Input
Amino acid sequence: MSEESKLSPGKVLLGAAIGLAIVVGLSIVVGYAGPKPGFQWELASIFGTALGTTLLAASTGALAYSTWSDVRATWQLADLTKHDQDERERPLVLQLDWRPEIGSALEGYLMGMLRNVGLGPALRVEVTADYADEDGNEPSQIDSVVFPAIPSGETQPFQLFVRFSELTNEVRPDGFRLRGTFTDRSQQRNYDIISWQN
Output
């Protein structure tokens, strides 16, 4: 609820005084307008009590609505705060560098480095790679590796075994693309590893 829509204490007191004056005034009118001659105290008090109770119920409903709006705003603020905290603690894993070290013409190792530059730990970090080149070479095997966790600010080296069944030309280092996923502390959301080449 905005500050402009909230009632000031002065307005609340003024509204209560006007409501009281209306209840008393109508009670007096009903007291004189009864079926018996003269002022009827019993009828005026019953009418005044009924009208006052109705106004009290309406005021309580308005107060409950105002409070509910405040509670809803508090929940929204709590949700925004939690989202902001989650984003600040979100781990962010970057590929710093990689280079293939081919042990033979058909197999070797893809080596690289991961660094968690986020504020929270990266959990269940899984790393693998793809390879594609213009010659149509396709590896028959590229291993993957899983790390249980990479703490914030820490670096983790990795190596992936790569095997080609046949090659039409030599393996191109720029044909490899690292990919992988990890979760945050809540382990409810998966993130992709952000990768770039030097």
